[in-house]
Design brief:
Elements lengths: L1 H41 L5 H23 L1
Helix pairs in contact: 1-2
Amino acid sequence: MQEAGAAYTHAYRVRHLEEQAEAWHQAKRLAEYVTAVRDHAASLSPGQEKTEIEVWIAFADAHIQRLTESA
């Protein structure tokens, strides 16, 4: 019974570790993409398109923050 409990605990920890690593990788990929979008937005003239992109960037930044907090 003890061995089964230890095996379950080990499997749970491994699964959790893999989920954390995947969340970290996803956040890193998204952050790189958002940086590219942010660089593009900086080159735009003021107007509706730039404003919409800035709103999207704020959303993306908040989403990435949530991902990194859970990792």
